[in-house]
């Protein structure tokens, strides 16, 4: 496949946009080459500026769980746009999506909408600090919770891709309140709590991690966090920006039956528009302005276009709960197929998967935390990525990202993908 026009467009973009992109991982820095410029997308496919069709395994990094340009979302948006695109005043639509989200997700009474996953996590932490009257938080190495200052400490995703554990511009004062733990290591968390008695406001965790590739919680890890939080007056924050409305209608809380105190959302909840949200039981949410003392606001929060897209998406998922089982089956089929061809071709690999989140690590050891994720062979990953691109298959341009499977994928698409992986892995 030829990516000539994409290269030209990237060269033009680089002149006026830092690195040519508005979010770093899009830049192909980890894998080399130039990014693909998209012209349009429909269902499981991307159509690029060179006229290539690509099978999409990123799906806008998660939101397009039912495929691109999903008709009910497109219709809701078109109808809504005619009525005005922003008012900065309440609309009935906001209550409708809030009520539906609260009905779908366990343990939440109220939800507040923001414009991104970053904002959701940032606000959740502020709320937790205000509510507990404590300053420190615990986060896990390799987990990404957006780019607000408190979280840019050993974050996964782009920070791992580019090898910058901490970003310049985050002050030492901020960094000292973020304590770092190893994912899947309860003893490490216990020790941090013991060393900082009555100082920790919250533990924030990706309950299934997706920013160091996909890393599932080991048996007992989330249960252990719940117990430690309850015993020490700490709020447990599930960052379900990736997992929410994807792994189950009620997210990881439903999937594993574990109760979080605050839940953060993004991606699927906005149907492909810029939306994030955070939610909790009433007692915690009433701590927010205008009811309570913790301030949080947004000119475009609850924007009618964003809410219309999000509502159409949540309604589609809520009315067809079988979608989660279909996604499980499709992704399991892909997993089995990839395992078979990589094994036959003598490749060292580990595949991690939970539901429709899956990733291939090029290392034979189990991947359970950031350290083990970082052992993956990046040279092999680069060959894998570019080989698949030539075959018309688009996966995330970094080994530290998960793939997001969409229900728009057919079994034929999956077979084509497995055959391409067979072909490409023979060249490693
Ligand atoms: N939390 C998690 C788990 C994420 O994966 C991301 C983004 N990939 C974020 C938060 C930040 O969301 P956004 O990019 O919408 O700010």
From TrEMBL:
Molecular-function annotations in GO: glutamate-1-semialdehyde 2,1-aminomutase activity
Recorded coiled-coil stretches: none
InterPro entries with a match to the protein in the record: 4pyrrol_synth_GluAld_NH2Trfase, Aminotrans_3, Aminotrans_3_PPA_site, PyrdxlP-dep_Trfase, PyrdxlP-dep_Trfase_major, PyrdxlP-dep_Trfase_small
Annotated catalysed reactions: (S)-4-amino-5-oxopentanoate = 5-aminolevulinate
Domain of life: Bacteria
Record key words, sorted: Cytoplasm, Isomerase, Porphyrin biosynthesis, Pyridoxal phosphate
Enzyme Commission number(s) from the entry: 5.4.3.8
Pfam families hit by this protein: Aminotran_3
Record bears the keyword Cytoplasm: yes
SUPFAM superfamilies, A to Z: PLP-dependent transferases
Localisation per UniProt entry: Cytoplasm
Family, similarity comment: Belongs to the class-III pyridoxal-phosphate-dependent aminotransferase family. HemL subfamily.
Complex formation: Homodimer.
Protein name: Glutamate-1-semialdehyde 2,1-aminomutase
């Amino acid at each position: 496949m030829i990516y000539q026009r994409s290269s030209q467009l990237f060269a033009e973009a680089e002149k006026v946009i830092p690195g040519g992109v508005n979010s770093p991982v899009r830049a192909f820095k980890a894998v080399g080459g130039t990014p693909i410029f998209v012209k349009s997308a429909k269902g499981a496919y991307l159509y690029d500026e060179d006229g290539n069709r690509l099978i999409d395994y990123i799906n806008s990094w998660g939101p397009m769980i039912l495929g691109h340009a999903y008709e009910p979302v497109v219709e809701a948006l078109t109808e809504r746009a005619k009525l005005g695109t922003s008012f900065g005043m309440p609309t009935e639509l906001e209550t409708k999506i809030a009520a539906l989200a609260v009905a779908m997700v366990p343990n939440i009474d109220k939800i507040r909408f923001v414009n991104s996953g970053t904002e959701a996590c940032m606000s959740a932490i502020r709320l937790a600090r205000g509510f507990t009257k404590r300053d420190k938080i615990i986060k896990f190495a390799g987990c990404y919770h957006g780019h607000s200052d408190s979280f840019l400490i050993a974050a996964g995703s782009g920070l791992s891709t580019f090898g910058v554990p901490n970003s310049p511009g985050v002050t030492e004062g901020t960094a000292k309140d973020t304590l770092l733990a190893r994912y899947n290591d309860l003893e490490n968390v216990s020790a941090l709590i013991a060393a900082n008695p009555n100082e920790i406001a919250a533990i924030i965790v990706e309950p299934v991690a997706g920013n160091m590739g996909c890393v599932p919680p080991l048996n007992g890890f989330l249960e252990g966090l719940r117990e430690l939080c309850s015993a020490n007056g700490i709020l447990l924050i599930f960052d379900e920006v990736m997992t929410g409305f994807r792994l189950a209608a009620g997210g990881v809380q439903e999937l594993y039956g574990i109760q979080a105190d605050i839940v953060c959302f993004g991606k699927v909840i906005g149907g492909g528009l810029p939306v994030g949200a955070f939610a909790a039981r009433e007692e915690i949410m009433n701590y927010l302005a205008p009811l309570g003392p913790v301030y949080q606001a947004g000119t475009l929060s609850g924007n009618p276009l964003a809410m219309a897209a999000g509502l159409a998406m949540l309604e589609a998922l809520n009315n067809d709960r079988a979608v989660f089982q279909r996604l499980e089956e499709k992704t399991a089929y892909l997993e089995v197929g990839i395992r078979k061809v990589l094994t036959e071709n003598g490749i060292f690999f580990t595949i991690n998967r939970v539901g429709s989140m899956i990733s291939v690590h090029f290392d034979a050891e189990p991947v359970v935390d950031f350290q083990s994720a970082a052992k993956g062979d990046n040279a092999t990953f680069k060959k894998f990525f570019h080989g698949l691109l030539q075959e018309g298959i688009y996966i995330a341009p970094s080994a530290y990202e998960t793939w997001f499977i969409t229900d728009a994928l057919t079994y034929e698409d999956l077979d084509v993908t497995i055959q391409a992986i067979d072909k490409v892995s023979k060249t490693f």
